[in-house]
Amino acid sequence: MLVISQDVFNERSGTVIALVVTSQEPVAGFPLTLEVTSVKLPKRSWVKISQIRTLSTERVGSALGRMSPEEMEQVKVLAALLRESTDVPYGALSDDDLVTAADEVFQEYDRRENNE
Asked: Is 37's pLDDT higher than 80?
């Protein structure tokens, strides 16, 4: 699992908010999954952006590593994109619409990064 909640939240609430990490090669692909490349895990792994869980801190084992800030930012952007797609009044977006929206988000992210 990839814990995405802040330490202060985890300590005060006794829970963590996490995304599922799997070594099963995804069928859905981008933008619903993101390959983990910045952490050396025992197997090739993917974060399942749509699989969000709230767990007791007592169920969380020791950390296997920490994602790079760049990869964590990608996870946050994709999670936000998924949240936005579920808030639309006209139903869920198609996979093609999600990919197009993700491309637009990453292009904007690149523009901002190049301007800094």
From this structure: yes
